[in-house]
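Project outcomes to date are best conveyed with an example. Our students and postdoctoral researchers have been running inverse folding experiments weekly, and each run begins with a structure described purely in tokens. The record below, which covers 264 residues, was selected by the lab manager from last quarter's runs and is presented without edits.
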């Protein structure tokens, strides 16, 4: 399948999404991006889900959008094509991963480039091989950054490191990415799956509604003042205190046992 595919499977309450185009280092075709948007959109309204896993097939995570295929059709797109299309494709992927009220865990091996790099950075938790490579090659290709890189990198790693990656095109290893705070952790390659699965199991066993609301409040706080953020927290608190998991959490505390959250 030269155009690749995005495959999905269920493991209990976890949705596993695999970018499956290993012969092209999981570069995303137009159809793959559309399928990724569809899978994440469906997951956002699936009350039976409690966590999402995203990984790449083979030796690499994702080398971004397949610009070679995009520009090899021989047809000149209409003026404004990128501004019409990308908000509903590549940018929509990043927006969904960052805002969906389910925890998202990425497992990264090999290359994470461009859109693939930003997909890993937008996830709530990314576990990478220490020798993986995170790279934002936009300027080396002659065009400006997209897919959230100018928003994500300064917030995660600071302005100086963001400029090193975006303006100088510096490649960052998995170990460096963890040290910089770009990702959750870096482990030897053979441990990536088990480390990611451990995180997924922990998150999927948590109070799903409260986790989603906390994720939403963290994102809101990135552009709000303290009083606004606390008002948002108060609204979320009102909602989470009406869940069955809240009642279970109180009961577990009283009974001095671990809570058995159901995600409701």
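After processing, the design step wrote out the following sequence:
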């Amino acid at each position: 399948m030269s155009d690749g595919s995005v495959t999905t499977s269920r493991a209990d309450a976890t949705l596993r999404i695999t970018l499956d185009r290993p012969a092209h280092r999981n570069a995303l075709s137009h159809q793959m991006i559309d399928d990724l948007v569809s899978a994440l959109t469906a997951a956002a309204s699936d009350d039976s889900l409690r966590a999402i896993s995203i990984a790449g097939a083979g030796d690499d995570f994702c080398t971004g959008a397949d610009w070679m295929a995009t520009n090899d059709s021989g047809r000149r797109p209409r003026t404004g094509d990128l501004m019409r299309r990308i908000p509903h494709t590549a940018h929509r992927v990043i927006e969904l991963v960052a805002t969906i009220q389910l925890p998202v865990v990425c497992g990264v091996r090999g290359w994470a480039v461009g859109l693939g790099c930003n997909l890993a950075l937008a996830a709530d938790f990314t576990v990478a091989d220490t020798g993986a490579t995170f790279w934002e090659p936009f300027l080396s290709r002659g065009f400006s950054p997209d897919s959230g890189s100018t928003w994500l990198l300064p917030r995660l790693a600071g302005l100086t490191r963001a400029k090193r990656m975006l303006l100088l095109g510096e490649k960052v290893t998995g170990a460096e990415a963890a040290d910089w705070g770009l990702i959750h952790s870096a482990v030897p390659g053979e441990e990536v799956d088990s480390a990611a699965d451990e995180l997924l199991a922990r998150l999927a066993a948590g109070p799903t509604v409260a986790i989603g609301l906390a994720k939403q409040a963290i994102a809101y706080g990135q552009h709000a003042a303290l009083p606004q953020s606390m008002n948002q927290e108060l609204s979320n608190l009102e909602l989470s205190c009406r869940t069955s998991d809240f009642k279970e959490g109180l009961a577990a505390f009283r009974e001095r046992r671990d809570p058995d959250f159901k995600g409701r």
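Residues 20 and 57 are 5 Å apart (CA to CA). The radius of gyration is 19 Å. The training component of this project remains on track.
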